Amino acid sequence: MTESQSRLRNPASWQPAGREREGLWIFTRLRDVIDDIANTSPARLALSAFASVCLVFTFLLSLPISSATGTATPLHEALFTAVSAVCVTGLTVVSTAVHWSFFGQVVILVGIFVGGLGTLTLASLLALMVSKKLGVRGKLIAQEAMNNAGRLGEVGTLLRIVITTSVVIEGALALALVPRFLLLGEPFWQAVWHGVFYSISSFNNAGFTPHSDGIVPYETDLWILVPLMLGVFLGSLGFPVVMVLQQNGLNWKKWNLHTKLTIQVSLILLAAGTVLWALMEWDNPRTIGPMDFGDKITHSLFASVMTRSGGFNLVEQNHMESTTMLLTDALMFAGGGSASTAGGIKVTTIAVMFLAIAAEARGDSDVKVYGRTIPQGTMRVAISVIVAGATLVSVSAFLLLQISGQSLDRVLFETISAFATVGLSTNLSAELPPSGVYVLAVLMFAGRVGTVTLAAGLALRQRSQLYHYPEERPIIG
């Protein structure tokens, strides 16, 4: 019997197959579109992926089951919370502990975990597509994008290594925190939930807390504060650095340049931030003034760690001195390591710019450090990232000043915290009208993917030039 005779005798036998082929055609077309975007504009694919994830979590948080009262959450509140979770920021317009149900808090926690892995997950996806389409050249680009951190250059194992590392570190942090919550009198499952929540929130530099009063009640409890600081610091280094440390330990000579610069600048900012924060707040009666010497040092170290993307706070940000708020602005804008869960312009960007300034002051034609020369293209990317970040912050601060009518110090603090995905707040986010909430949501999104996408776009947008214009140097400075 021929195929046509079979179809005439039993039409229903081939209709589902036709619909199945139609469905497969849709998926095939979607795959082709994604492949085309990945090869023509990886930055656009990264933006689309992050935006889609934010919309999915916005929908979940807007459901009645996500709120403690069983009513639907307004769109601007659900969107802001979803973007803050996926972009691992920690800013809130409603109380995480009071407004959201257990289901809503689980959605937020999953968003934090996905957002923390987002950049590297997209990197592995893009690298896999590039490798398929561009062969050896694509693999070299993917390896360079991950700072040549050993196995991270192997696209097939990247995602597994990243997820395994995250789960192991977060599991260790949870094991350290759960017993303490149990000793403080919490029921077993509540202690487990709080331990897991804080471990994921700290390692991903999110700053969300399941307690209505945050971690202020534990301001002298080192059993809780030390794991939080350790999780935030490790998360801010970035997976490429963590992988190098796993492979080579503390053997400085075997570290690559990215690892050396990231750890060195991070420690410098940590030490400087601790000392300066302590000096500025030492006698402030509204923050750490009445405390003893040990607690003042603990608060200063904790504040220095958290200002570079952690987002947890032990003191009211509005009670700090104006100079301390300015210091916090600078540390937040600096951020953490590249390919990490931290935000900001990244510590390697700062390192490259200071090295370039030092080379110019010495009259050197090359920017050199640790026996290596930094390419001119890297410096162009660093300048672009800094200028783009400053522009985003300036425009957003201008808009929020017009919308809120608040003082510049509060607006600038909230704006930089959103851009750098830190989460420290003067409570301005909760006071803003929906228009201001949307501005901060866009800024958080741009801060999480903007500078990374810009750097990737500049690094991958290489084209051959058949001619070169005559050079002419304008007057600078």
Structure description:
This protein has 477 residues and is mainly alpha-helical. It has helices at residues 3-9, 15-40, 42-62, 75-86, 96-99, 102-145, 155-183, 188-203, 222-237, 239-248, 257-281, 293-310, 322-334, 347-362, 376-404, 408-419, 428-431, 434-460; strands at residues 367-369, 372-374. Strand 1 (367-369) and strand 2 (372-374) form a beta hairpin. The longest helix has 44 residues, at 102-145. It is globular.
List the main descriptive attributes of the protein structure presented here:
477 residues, mainly alpha, two-stranded antiparallel ribbon, 2 strands, 1% strand, globular
Question: What's the gist of this structure?
Answer:
The protein is an all-alpha fold and 477 residues long. Helix content is 69%, strand content 1%.
Distance between the termini: 86 Å
Q: Strand arrangement, largest sheet?
A: 1-2
Fraction of helical residues: 55-70%
Structural class: mainly alpha
| Total beta-strand segments | 2
Low-confidence stretches: 6-23, 130-153
Q: For the CA atoms, what is the radius of gyration?
A: 24 Å
The largest sheet is: 2 strands, antiparallel
Series of secondary-structure elements, N-terminal to C-terminal: HHHHHHHHHHHHHHEEHHHH
Question: Which strand-content bin applies to the residues?
Answer: under 5%
How large is the count of helical segments?
18
Mean pLDDT: 83
- What characteristic shape results from the CA principal axes? globular
Secondary structure layout:
Elements: H1 3-9, H2 15-40, H3 42-62, H4 75-86, H5 96-99, H6 102-145, H7 155-183, H8 188-203, H9 222-237, H10 239-248, H11 257-281, H12 293-310, H13 322-334, H14 347-362, E1 367-369, E2 372-374, H15 376-404, H16 408-419, H17 428-431, H18 434-460
Antiparallel strand pairs: 1-2
Helix pairs in contact: 2-3, 3-4, 3-6, 3-18, 4-6, 4-18, 6-7, 7-8, 7-9, 8-9, 9-12, 11-12, 11-13, 11-14, 12-13, 13-16, 14-15, 15-16, 15-18, 16-18
